[in-house]
Amino acid sequence: MSDRLRLCVIGALCASLGLAACGQPEQDSVVNVFSARHYASDQEVFRAFTEETGIEINLVEADGDLLIERVRADGERSPADVIITVDAGRLHRAEQAGLFQPVDNLGGMLDRVPDSLVHPDNLWFGFATRARVIVYARDRVDPSEVQTYADLARPEFEGRVCVRSSSNVYNQSLVAGMIAEDGSEAAESFARGIAQNLARTPQGGDTDQIRAVAAGECDVAIVNHYYLGRLMNAEDSADRAVGEAVGIIFPDQGQGGTYVNISGAGLAANAPNPEAARALLAFLLSERAQRAFAELTNEFPADPSVSYDNTVLEGFAGFEARDMNVNALGENGAEAQRIFDRVGWP
Amino acid sequence: MAIADTSTLHRKLTGRTGLHPVWLAAFAGLLCAAPLLAVVWLGMSGAWSDYLIHIANTRLAEFLINTAIVGLTAALLAGVIGTGTAWLVTRHVFPGRNLFQWMLALPLAMPAYAAAYGWYDLTQGAGPLGGLVPAVHGPFGAGAIFGLVFYPYVYLLARESFSAQSADAYDAARTLGCSPFQAFARTALPMVRPAIAAGLALVVMEALADYGTVSHLGAPTLTVALMRAWAGEGSIPDAARLAMLLVSISFLIFMAERALRRRARQTAASGHVRAFRRQRLSPLAGMLAVLACLLPVLMGLVIPAARLGWRAAYTPAATGLMDAAVNSLTLAGVSGLLAAGIGLGLAYAIRTRKLAGRASARIASMGYGVPGAVAALGVLIIFGGVQGWLDTLWRGMTGSPFPLVLTGSALALIFAYQARFIAAAIGPSESALSRVTPSLDAAARTLGARPLTLARRVHWPLVSSGVALAGLLVFVEVLKELPATMILRPFNMNTLAVTAHNFAADERLGQAALPAVLLVAAALPAMIWIARRITATERSRDTVPPSEAIPGLAE
């Protein structure tokens, strides 16, 4: 008994030492992924990658800001090969912390992605996009009234707008985009208008805003498109009814285009398995992976030529996206948050 | 005097080891405090931006008011529910009492954010209860959620304290014409005040450190300001400064708790424990008691979990839950045992009244009042520093850097848990040790008990249930812990809490349900065991004649 115990202790010690060393014996037979995403689509993509290349994936999933601190604390010794997050703001933060190294064009794969979704120095790129859209109550709102983001800030919408808290990065990135496009003053007056038009104190997530519109608590809401896609594709008929009660508008068509954000990835500065990491990064842009993002997560593929089997998403596609480099979202995020504080968007 | 006496114990130990045990405890305390100290260092040395001025000019008042409302609402609700139900189950006989003994503790296993998601989904305008009951949101809603999931802290500590109490004062009050309630308020309640205060301190600190619940329910507290400094502004030093503000608030709460405890020292029961007789309630009163015990369990656990579960019916189940459950239980079990030991050591260190011991225990406790993400950041800073130091050392010896063992290992996680939750282990042990009165030590010494015998035969029987409770609290905390687990865990290792959070954070409530319910199920055996332990000591006390209630002294 005590022998077995001793064996266990020794085994545990060796395992914890070996854990750090693993990946070194065989060059690039593994790739270590630090991801702020946790979607079924990603599991599917990672599984397919291992199946096709034989390279195993080691995964840590955590929230973006802590993920950055972890890689930073580990420094040169960080086991991270690939860093994945869900917002350009986070990628910008990671890049500022020096966590990325440039990738070449990944054997031509990166050419498939529009320039606006790639960091100017190829330090990271978007592999899927999400649009910040307007949903409205079909029975109470004439869609012609809400064709732009600025429409929601007009006095007619006083007490009719639902949107989640300004602590959420999606709202920060939206206003950060406006700062980059139209300047701080215009962005601030938009945010002030929204704060004045709120139907209720911001609460819940994007899905809760859509539900509130369907239930009549408010008439319009600002949400990411895939939350509506998820409701419309839901198994629960009550959820599908919510999806049918609201309409979707891609704002600012013909006026610069709808703001989009990315799910993005980059090669870690001190990646111990750089070749495997490049292979995975390229795989994220492969047709198989791009389809998975569209079909399982309702995100738009970064490669516009990829076709997929998702009727709801196909119905959304074809809108004009803002032609600005998403890097600007990160650069202006802090200023956006200060605007929220000043105008009282809680 | 206790002071003189325990130091005799220490002198003996010192003679044997050459080291005063208080230093050992102080070292453990400082180790637990290290991550917090790293955050403080970051706040002091980091670059200053104008963010704090910006916050002071814009939303600071809102953050402070919300923090106060959330904390007070949680404390009030948890205090009333926790104390009331503990009084009911320890001193009364009514249908289902044995069941409620441990069931009342269960909401503690429900992560606060999961309860918040469930309740909000039920009561928002679009939910099934929308319009029928007020929507659970804002600072009062968040405070209510905290009261409902954290009242077990007060309940567990108060129950433990009530059941260890002698019946003398209560019976005397009744004989002198007090109604049961008056007797309760004048005799029983003052004696459990330290336990209630310790429980409330934990409740309030939990509430102040929470981020998930308050941000979902739209009740921005100081923690939200802190996370905005970090995530939105990108200024970690400013986040660290706001964390220091939170720590100062926790410090004040601790001081208040200390003050209460010091006053209670004089009123504490003597070593003489005469078992109380449980009062049988009339059928009507019994039904009311059942209702009073049932409601908190329903509202804190069953209703929100059922709402999540209802949504689960329409979503594919999460996979890998068995592995996650095993990981959760292993980490929580090891950390709970370790924390129970360290907590008892620190509780003794406080009792010695040596500055080093008391100060290290107090500083170690402060980690509880900061948001989990900040505590995890502190651990990262410490490990980054130690790893760099090891690398230099190892390179000097072997020419190659030391393997990267600190982050991404189970060791890192267990250290992080101790640093974060040791306060939950110190409180119950300290509260239990406060029952070991100076006169008791003196009596045992007079009867010739040597210091180690004193600790084993007099102290241990009195404090063991408190120590078990300490272990249980940390066990449950670790089951629920998120940020440190997420960021420090080894590759490909999941826990139930992480799985539940990942789905809930992505607004997939249905898929979060199963891991959340499993979390509660995982805590169940431990809770039942503890409840039985405490009732077992009660039972044995019931059968032992009063003069022999303290084992060992009669020899």
Automatic annotation (TrEMBL), chain A:
Keyword Lipoprotein included in the entry's annotation: no
Family the UniProt entry places it in: Belongs to the bacterial solute-binding protein 1 family.
PROSITE patterns named among the record's database cross-references: PROKAR_LIPOPROTEIN (PS51257)
Name the UniProt record assigns to this protein: Iron deficiency-induced protein A
InterPro entries: Ferric-bd
Pfam families assigned: SBP_bac_6
Alphabetical keyword list: Signal
UniProt superkingdom: Bacteria
Signal sequence interval, chain numbering: 1-20
TrEMBL record, chain B:
Family recorded in the similarity comment: Belongs to the binding-protein-dependent transport system permease family.
Protein name: Iron ABC transporter permease
Gene3D superfamilies: MetI-like (1.10.3720.10)
Principal subcellular localisation of the protein: membrane
Database matches in InterPro entries: MetI-like, MetI-like_sf
Places the protein is found: Cell inner membrane; Cell membrane
Keyword Transmembrane helix recorded: yes
UniProt KW keywords: Cell inner membrane, Cell membrane, Membrane, Transmembrane, Transmembrane helix, Transport
Entry membrane topology: Multi-pass membrane protein
PROSITE patterns for the chain: ABC_TM1
